[in-house]
Amino acid sequence: MTQSKDLITIATFLNPWDAHILRGLLESEDIPACLASEHVVWLNWQWSMALGGVDLRVPYAAQDRAKEVLEQYMQGDYAAALQAATDAEFGAAEQADACPHCGSRDISSSNTNPGMLSALGIYFFLGVIVPQPKAIKCRACGHSLKELAEDASKS
Ligand SMILES: [Zn+2]
Asked: N vs C: which end of the chain shows fewer Cβ within 10 Å?
């Protein structure tokens, strides 16, 4: 397989979506990246291994930094950072095991109906699946966590 003299393949993937995720990761780290042989695999993905998979390529000069980012990804550094950020934002809600309003421990989280409707609408018109926010609600008194937070701020 011939390569452009400016680009070097730093990883090969059996499926294009994994390749796209890591291309996006490299670009988020300001490393230009592109995929090669992607469309051949999309045409006949069952043959991906026989066709050589999808190549993730970066400029020759950026290969050391790109390999470093991929290594951090494989070690789980990005997953750990995402988990820490998620915990920082939603941790208090997830850890609330009792309703501060009535003291009940019967708390449930569920998808909101308007959220599900908008998700269906987005799916039908754009063909994209969007994750929906969860509503955390006390089953005993019916207060949602947002209402409880507002109650706490009033007192
Ligand atoms: Zn309650």
From this structure: C
